[in-house]
Amino acid sequence: MDESTPAFAIAVAAELAGMHPQTLRQYDRLGLVSPTRTSGRSRRYCMRDVMQLREISALSAEGLNLEGVKRILDLENRVSELNLRVHELEAALADELLAKPGRRVFAAGAAGEVISLKAGTRGERTDQVVLWRPFTRRDSQLSP
Question: What keywords sit in the KW lines (predicted)?
Answer without folding.
Answer: DNA-binding
